[in-house]
Amino acid sequence: MVEVPADKWIIKAEKDLSDAEFNLVNGRYEVAAFLLHQAAEKALKALYILKFKRLWKIHDLKRIGS
Asked: Over the stretch 29-52, which tens digit does the pLDDT of each residue have?
């Protein structure tokens, strides 16, 4: 597992969320959905880092959130 500051993941999540909103407004629903998933994953990783002080490199939202 890699040590990465949680705030970097929050910044990335916020950017993905902003990009998702832009795509949603412009009718690019598939891209918006993908970016929303990415934003959720990055936000959960930030919470995981805050709780466990390390990054778990995984893409399973259910496992990260549990």
From this structure: 999 999 999 999 999 889 888 888
